[in-house]
Structure formats: C-alpha cells, structure tokens
Amino acid sequence: LLMLFQMAALAQQIVIAHRGASGYLPEHTIAAKSMAHAMGADYLEQDLVMTRDGELVVLHDLYLDRVSDVATKFPERAREDGRHYVVDFTLDELRQIKITERRKTDNAADPTMAFPGRFGLHKSHFGIHTFAEELELIRELNRTTGKTVGIYPEIKSPSFHHQNGQDIAAATLQTLKDHGYTTNDGSVYLQSFDPHELKRVKTELMPQMQMDLPLVQLIARTNWKLTQERLPNGQWANYDYDWMLAPGAMEVIAQYADGIGPHIGMLFDSNDAKLAPNALVKQAQARGLVVHPYTVRADALPKGVNSIDELHELLFKQVGVDG
Ligand code: G3P
Ligand code: CA
C-alpha cells in the first residue's frame, strides 16, 4: 500500500522541457521541441511574443538579437537601444532570419555563446515558428507516438505588448482555444510573471471566452533585471515580487492562480542548496498551489549541487516540488 501511495505521489511530479530540449539543441526550435517530446518530457514550454501583424511566435526575448542574424539582415530596423524587436517585424520578415544558439549577452557583436561550439549561425538552418505551428507539431507527435505531452506557454511581458498595441494574453487564449485547449484537463498550464495580467486572464478573458485553464504565477526577485522586462526606452519594468515571498502571499495568489513558478534559488534558505529548504513550497501546496520551479540547467546548477541527478533528487524527493 505504501508503495502505491509513493507511486501516486511520483506520478504527479512532472517534467517540463524548458524551451524544449534546450540543453541539447537551440532553444525554442522545432528540433528542440521534437527532441524533448522524444526524451519523455511531460510538458513542452513555449515563451510567446507577438509580431507587428499580430502573430504569436515562440521566442524567449522580446527582441531577436541574442538568437539570430537579424542585425545582418535588417540593420536599419534596430530601435534606439540597438535591438531589433519582434513587435516591429511581420511574420513574413521573421521567416527570413536564421535562429542560432543563444548569446550570453545581447550584443550582436559578442561571439560568446551560451553553448560554445555547437550549432553556430553559419553551421545550421534553424528558423522561427509560430505558436500555432508548434501546437500542430505537438498534436501530431502525440498522435503518432500515443503520448499525451502537454504544453506550458508563457505570456511574455504583457505590459510591453500593450504599449505596442498588442493584447498578447487575448491572442494566446484565442490560439489555445482554436487548438482545443479550453479546460483544466492536464494538457496545459498557462504562465506569466505579470500578476495583473494573470488576474485579467482569470476574471475577464477566460470567462468571456468560456475557458478555464490553470494559471501559474512566475516569481522572480524584484531587483532582478529579467530580459523580458527590459523596455525599448532603456528602462526596466520590474514587477514587485517581494510581496509574493511574504507570509500570506500564497492565499492571495491562490485566488487567481493554480500554481507558482519560483526560481529554484527561492526554495532554499540561502544560495547554498545543501541547506534546508525553506517554507515556500509547503505554504504554496497547503493553499492547493502546485510548485514548478525554474530552471534546472546543467550549466547553472545551484551552489552545492554537483549534477542534474543530484538536483532532481533534491527537488523531487527532499523539497517535494510538483514539477
Ligand atoms: O517559464 C519559467 C521560466 O522559463 C521563466 O524564466 O526567463 O526562462 O522564461 P524564463
Ligand atoms: Ca519561460
């Protein structure tokens, strides 16, 4: 009986492929998503941004410079900060650029890659694809393999999109609905760093569209300068995350979300993961929230952790995260 309980508990712990199998292939490419599907991921993650003509594409940054040859193809299209923003390009234009491995910096002239030596720009032919195309790919892979791999889209910087005349949350929901993702049936989680937009999705958009998807509140540190929140005017649109780590915060989040996605560093009492886990996970789970921390990366293990296996052991067995 104990074994059955343990198996049931383990079955609820899911593996989410962050930007696809991005430890092996360039992030957010069709190849990386296909590989993650084949490797046995339970969910595939999609970061979403919008084009000038209102198409959702799967890309982490609001701008193209860290993962593409856009500066070579469209040198005249940079904004004042030197970056080329997806929202300034049509999908047809984006089809002309090549995607490659992520650079460590957003300086196009900087050759330092996150994964040096593999899939350089001139040795590969990866491109940008739409959210709809990825959903169709996953549907087909599920059909041909008999698997039921889910999706885990992230609405990137809704405030930036609003400033540029785009309602990315509404567009995301519409695309999800068009592809049959409408209920909390285990096939989808929808995530964002923006609590205001998540509340809008929960209380306005989903009721209007007759949808009921589980939402995940991503949590960062207020002073972290996350790339998706950097605005073209050079300022940072930081959300206030501090309240999310204060006592009682999980009750507030549970009113509009079904889970939290904290940075893994927030699960421990210090940056040394060998120290005791803090109370965040238990507090969230006590309020019925699932906990899916980001990001497990072989090249960025927490201090005191020596391997991915060790981190999995720590997160799944000792800390007890849900994914
Ligand atoms: O989706 C969770 C995690 O991916 C958030 O961080 O910057 O990789 O989108 P980021
Ligand atoms: Ca993400």
UniProtKB/TrEMBL annotation:
<comment type="similarity">
    <text>Belongs to the glycerophosphoryl diester phosphodiesterase family.</text>
</comment>
<protein>
    <recommendedName>
        <fullName>glycerophosphodiester phosphodiesterase</fullName>
        <ecNumber>3.1.4.46</ecNumber>
    </recommendedName>
</protein>
<keyword id="KW-0378">Hydrolase</keyword>
<keyword id="KW-0812">Transmembrane</keyword>
<dbReference type="InterPro" id="IPR030395">
    <property type="entry name" value="GP_PDE_dom"/>
</dbReference>
<keyword id="KW-0472">Membrane</keyword>
<dbReference type="InterPro" id="IPR017946">
    <property type="entry name" value="PLC-like_Pdiesterase_TIM-brl"/>
</dbReference>
<keyword id="KW-0732">Signal</keyword>
<dbReference type="Pfam" id="PF03009">
    <property type="entry name" value="GDPD"/>
</dbReference>
<keyword id="KW-0319">Glycerol metabolism</keyword>
<keyword id="KW-1133">Transmembrane helix</keyword>
<dbReference type="GO" id="GO:0008889">
    <property type="term" value="F:glycerophosphodiester phosphodiesterase activity"/>
</dbReference>
<feature type="domain" description="GP-PDE">
    <location>
        <begin position="13"/>
        <end position="323"/>
    </location>
</feature>
